[in-house]
Amino acid sequence: MISESEYDDIRPYCDSEVPEVIERLIKNDDFLKFALQLFPDLSREKIEASLSQVKTVDDFQSMFIVPLADNIIKNTTKGISIEGLDKLDKNESYLFISDHRDIILDSALLNILLYRNDFSTTEIAIGSNLLIQPWISDLVKLNKSFVVKRNASVRDMLVNSNQLSSYIGYALNTKKSSVWIAQREGRTKDGDDRTQQSLLKMLQMSGSKTFSEHFRALRIVPVAISYEYEPCDALKSRELFLKETEVGYKKTPKDDLLSMLKGMINEKGRVHFRVGKPISEMLDVIEEMDDSRDKFKALAELIDYKIHKNFKLWPDNYIAFDILNQTNEYQDHYTDEEKDLFLKHMDKKLGTVDGDRERLKEIFFEIYANPVKNQIELTKPDFVNENL
């Protein structure tokens, strides 16, 4: 019998731990400064008073996270929407695997949509590299996040991956909690969403069943998240440019913190979530493959197919594709006004970034154009799609 204590170093906080954690946060000046940025209409005293009423994880989500998400949606989006929840059972737990565009918002906005539609919110996978301050760790663990340990030795990485795999299975099938995890480690920077096979290998590590039985039991639900305006498009462009031009360039914890904050406060336009059906079809076919490497590759491609197909393309995506490829192929998908607005948005965002202007613009366009390219790939005759 598995005991939850085996996961104490990675699991979310439970209700009995909440009062002590809230007391720590209220006493932390850095957290309160952060909270004041997120709730500019509230005073420090008002935030402290509201937090002091929190006694459980559900209290924290309903009294702090939901208002925060509503504030972000109201002030930085033109609305969020979701389709596909009718394919799911509210009494079942699922492993939501989505494209990864924003550090915080991908899971946060999915959870607010689940909450609004009377589904339980998910537990959230978050990399330890992002927990750069103790108060950040407290904050995310209060919000049902569990830790994915990063930057470990090879030996430790295997131990950590096995623990993580076991915990996800425990959360889904013992706690009956849904789980969100990104399809890759770190956000996609160039808009080309791909599932890492290493993620699937980690999920399999704790499995004692056959490949198809194990993954069917995880009830994987692919989710496509489409932002009209990527909140960190300029920061991503800068990062990709620096990786090209500076030998050994690496992001700093400060860069990650900036991305988290910018993701919450920058404009996003419309945001759409499209939820696929739980993956079960094709698993038996994948099971018959001779080489285990082929099985993980096939499952990754199946998830990618679902996400690429369900990704909602906005006018910006078509505009960027046409500009990048010097074509008018998709001009019926946008207006001259929409094109002008997108180019003004790009100029505004890249105006704060140093570097070769033309290359930065090209990188920026690629972020928005790659989802179009991925949908084009699905229509090619050699792509076996409808069977997936």
Describe this structure in words.
The protein has 388 residues and is of the alpha/beta class. It has one domain (4-233, 271-313): Glycerol-3-phosphate (1)-acyltransferase. 52% of the residues lie in helices and 10% in strands. The chain is built from 16 helices and seven strands. It has helices spanning 18-26, 29-38, 44-51, 57-76, 105-116, 134-142, 154-173, 197-204, 211-218, 233-245, 253-265, 283-287, 292-310, 315-324, 336-350, 357-378; strands spanning 77-83, 95-98, 123-127, 145-148, 179-182, 220-227, 269-275. Helix 14 packs across helix 16. The protein is globular. The model has no long low-confidence stretch (mean pLDDT 93). GO terms for molecular function: acyltransferase activity. Pfam families: Acyltransferase (PF01553).
